[in-house]
Amino acid sequence: MDLLTVISPVFGARTSVLVADDGACVVVDAGALVADAVVGLVQERGLRPAAVLLTHGHADHTWGAGELAERLRVPVHVHARDAYRLADPFGTLGPLGGAAHDPSGPLAQSLVGVGADPASYVAPADVRRFGTSGSDEGAAERDEDVPLELGGIRVVARHAPGHTEGSTLYLVGDVVLTGDVLFAGTIGRTDLPGGDSQVMARTLREVVARLDPSTQVVPGHGPTSVVRHELTTNPFLVGLSGADR
């Protein structure tokens, strides 16, 4: 499995392209202004895209998903509890988003700063939801793993709420794509709408700490890492190794 990376100029969000030996590929996350680069990689290498997967519904990871999915002619997959965010990328990002026509909002400022129009967002047309939608009372409950067979690539979607209700880890072989749940040396924030520090703590204990220590960590921002290294150095994970195993 080959791993290609495109970094969005908006909040430095990572788009990953996982490529199988036979040329099948899946795209994980699609930030602003990444579509041209991803399509270029697909065409240059003669790849066969099967899907766009979203680790969660925040706009810095989803802004280009509609355009990219349309150009690649593939569906977008997202956890059911974050699907609502695709219709309102500004409002559901809380203080980082603001109103679409409010130029003072951080998201709008970042978009304008790289030459993108804050009003140009296109929601994905073909959205495949997995997991349960939950409710206000049960939204913190974690779903079971969902296996996804995408163009011959087997991906395991593992619900990991806390950063958002529908945050998801994607496991492919010895790689885990963690979105904004886990970064090298730290974790995602929990103070935005849908975030919950207690739910995140449980996710770290029951999901992240149980990952195979040799698994490569590919986060939504910043450098990659290895689970073993995070379990021994990340202050949010130290002491959780083997917890509840």
TrEMBL record:
It comes from the Bacteria. GO terms for molecular function: hydrolase activity; metal ion binding. Gene3D superfamilies: Ribonuclease Z/Hydroxyacylglutathione hydrolase-like. InterPro entries: MBL_Glyoxalase_II, Metallo-B-lactamas, RibonucZ/Hydroxyglut_hydro. Keywords: Hydrolase, Metal-binding, Zinc. Its cofactor is Zn(2+). Pfam families: Lactamase_B. Residues 13-221 form the Metallo-beta-lactamase domain. CDD domains: metallo-hydrolase-like_MBL-fold (cd06262). PANTHER family: HYDROXYACYLGLUTATHIONE HYDROLASE GLOC (PTHR46233:SF3). This is Metallo-beta-lactamase domain-containing protein.
